[in-house]
Automatic annotation (TrEMBL):
Protein name: Peptidyl-prolyl cis-trans isomerase
Any matching Pfam family: FKBP_C
SUPFAM superfamilies tied to this protein: FKBP-like
Source domain of life: Bacteria
Entry-linked InterPro entries: PPIase_dom_sf (IPR046357), PPIase_FKBP_dom (IPR001179), PPIase_FKBP_N (IPR000774), PPIase_FKBP_N_sf (IPR036944)
Keyword Magnesium: no
Length: 310
C-alpha cells in the first residue's frame, strides 16, 4: 500500500467532522477531549506552516499579481477564517488558506495534534525570510513522519476498541463467528442457493461505526432503493465478500467486521484507521454471472482496489 505524505493528504482532505462556521480549536480531538501536543506535533505544525508559506510565495509570484499580497493581511485572514469570517483580496487569500488549515485540523487521523499558532509562525517565518526551525528540505519528511505516527497510533487505539466491541458481540445470543473472525447474526435466513463469487446481487444495506454513527446506506445514498453489483474480491472489502456468501435470497444479516476484513489501518472517509464496522444487509435478489460494473462509493468498497474502467 503506497505511503501517504501529509503535504498531499492535507491538500485533498474532504472534511465533514464539523458544520460550516464552527470554530476550530487546536489540541482538541474529535470527541472534544484535550490532547497534549507532543514535540513532533509542534514540529509538524511549524513544518506545515512552512509548506503553506512556500505555496503562498509561488502564488504571489504570478505575473498578474505583481507581488501584491500583503502578508500580514493574509495572516489576519487565516486567523479570522478559523473564527468564521469572510472577505476578499490579500485577506481573502488568507481566508482560503484558513479553509485548508481547518480541513487539516478536522482530519480524523490528526485531529487535535496540530497547533494553529505554530502553523502561522512557520508560514510567517518562511514568507518574511526569517531563520526557520525546520529546513525547507526536511518539511515533507517531518510531515510524513508525523502523519505516519498519528496513523499508527490511531489505528492501534481503534483496533483495540474494535476487538473489545467484537468480543462483547460474540457473547450475545445468536451471534456466530467464522474462522476469519467475521461475526454475524441471522435476522432472517432467506431461502434458496447461497451467493457465490461472480454472482450479480441486489441488496439494501446500512453501514455504521461501532458507536452507531452511520457512514453509508442505501437510504442515504440511493433513495432507499437497493443497489446492484457483482460480488468480487478486490472490489469489495473482504468482510463483504465472505459475508455475502453466507446469504440466500430474502436473507437479512447483521455483520460485525474487524478492521483487517474492512478498511485496515488506512480507513476511508468517516471510517478511521483500524475501525471495526457493522453492516445490516438485506439480500433482495441473486443472478448468475458477471453483473453491473462497480464504482467507488458502493457498499463496503475498497476504493484503492477499484481500477479505472471497473
Amino acid at each position: 500500500m503506497k505511503k501517504i505524505i501529509l503535504t498531499a493528504a492535507l491538500g485533498i482532505i474532504v472534511f465533514s467532522c464539523k458544520k460550516e462556521g464552527d470554530a476550530v480549536v487546536s489540541g482538541v480531538d474529535a470527541k472534544g477531549e484535550k490532547v497534549e501536543l507532543s514535540e513532533l506535533d509542534m514540529k509538524a505544525s511549524y513544518a506545515y506552516g512552512v509548506s503553506l508559506g512556500q505555496n503562498t510565495e509561488r502564488y504571489n509570484q504570478n505575473p498578474q499579481l505583481q507581488d501584491s499580497l500583503d502578508i500580514d493581511q493574509v495572516k489576519k485572514g487565516i486567523q479570522d477564517f478559523l473564527k468564521d469570517s469572510k472577505t476578499l483580496d490579500s485577506y481573502g487569500y488568507g481566508l482560503n488558506i484558513g479553509k485548508q488549515i481547518k480541513g487539516a485540523l478536522e482530519n480524523n487521523v490528526i485531529q487535535g495534534h496540530l497547533d494553529t499558532d505554530e502553523i502561522l509562525v512557520g508560514m510567517m517565518d518562511y514568507l518574511k525570510k526569517k531563520n526557520l526551525k525546520v529546513s525547507v528540505d526536511s518539511v515533507a519528511m517531518v510531515m510524513d513522519e508525523f502523519y505516519q505516527t498519528q496513523l499508527a497510533n490511531s489505528a492501534a487505539a481503534n483496533k483495540q476498541k474494535g476487538l473489545d466491541f467484537l468480543a462483547a458481540k460474540k457473547k450475545e445470543d445468536g451471534v456466530k463467528t467464522t474462522e476469519s473472525g467475521l461475526a454475524y447474526k441471522v435476522i432472517n435466513e432467506g431461502s434458496g442457493p447461497k451467493v457465490k463469487e461472480g454472482d450479480k446481487i441486489k441488496v439494501k444495506y446500512k453501514g455504521t461505526l461501532i458507536d452507531g454513527d452511520v457512514f453509508d446506506s442505501t437510504d442515504l445514498n440511493n433513495n432507499g432503493e437497493p443497489v446492484e453489483f457483482t460480488l468480487q474480491s478486490g472490489g469489495l472489502i473482504p468482510g463483504w465478500v465472505e459475508g455475502m456468501q453466507l446469504m440466500s435470497k430474502g436473507a437479512k444479516y447483521e455483520f460485525y467486521i474487524p478492521s483487517d476484513l474492512g478498511y485496515g489501518d488506512m480507513g476511508s472517509g468517516k471510517i478511521g484507521p483500524g475501525d471495526a464496522l457493522v453492516f445490516d444487509i438485506e439480500l433482495i435478489d441473486i443472478s448468475d454471472g458477471v453483473g453491473a460494473n462497480r464504482a467507488p462509493g458502493q457498499p463496503g468498497v475498497n476504493i484503492e482496489a477499484v481500477k479505472p474502467g471497473n
